[in-house]
Amino acid sequence: MLDRVALGVLPEKPHTVFRAAADGPLAGALLQEEMFTRGGFDGPYSYLYHQRPITAPIEVATSSRGFPVARPSEEGNHPLRRRLYHAPKAARRGAMLEARTSVVVNSDVALYVLRPDRDDDVLFANGDGDELFYVFEGELELESVFGRQRCVAGDYVHVPRSTIHRWKLLTATAELIVFECRGGCVIPGNFRNPVGQLKLDAPYTHRDFGRPTAPIATLDAVAEGPCDVIVKKGDRFTLHRLAHTPLDVVGWDGYAYPFTFPIEKYQPKTGLIHLPPTIHTTFTGPGFAICSFVPRVTDTHPQAIPCPYPHSSVDCDEILFYVRGNFTSRKGVGPGSLSLHPAGIPHGPHPGSYEKSIGSTRTDELAVMIDTFAPLVPTTDAVALEDRAYHESWTL
Ligand SMILES: [Fe+2]
Asked: What is the pTM of this model?
């Protein structure tokens, strides 16, 4: 939900007769309008124009396809301690639809690690929430009713709830994380002016985002392609076998569509002294904020301590995904590590790092963080990824 995009062919006015050419491959067919709306009919929306009706599934059945959904482990966060997980330990491979290992979950958001090694062979629509991916390694193509988008390491990829899509790998494997955001995931409202334009002091500009560039189908050929859509709703998977591929959109316009955002286009802020993590906010949703820590100049006061201060954020849980850098604040973590600091248990830099940081002028760390108000509960599948010595790593 960035700004309006218009691609392909469109009728002059919505909800009016729009036909393919009589002498073309679609033989004058009436194109089928689909309204893709958010927030009932009050939120952002897009109009899509399909070659053929999308409303007639020829088969509906429960499906064994999909990924193991995030289930809170029985012991939850007990005993309460700082925890560390390593994404590369996740053994589950396959297509994006299946190669997910859950890490933490609450009523607002679930976090999964993805390690795909093949293309999706069916389409997927997640009705349980917006999905915000972060591509850690590799390169993929997102193919959706809105078009194709190339996604590379360092990109956030926002896929709106119920967007019909599939993923293709452009490298042999890829490494990602995804936040499944039950109440949606948006650009914070305070980054926009009254007409919706990103404000001059927002940490990104409209030019920084990637959007679909063309619909997949045209009026020059009858669209062919996958007809099976796996739908996730209420953490259960259903197969909808359609009579025709839904990737037959020849034009669309609107505000609701997938987008990409390269994390290193995030414009960080620096102060005289250390600024709180909130200045790294990138996306928000009900109950959470997602922050981007990117390479930046550190504080300018001659006596500043640039390293993050030890803190007890007692109303929030936080999980930090380390992408790259020297991670001066912690030892024992590396690319692909995820640290969970629940319930404001005091945490901060590794012993010694705090003092050592005095006088440094920049940091090259790259990381993604989510802060939540509802507690994040480790999942049953997260046990296999955990480094259980982490809590004691603060011991001098
Ligand atoms: Fe923290």
From this structure: 0.96
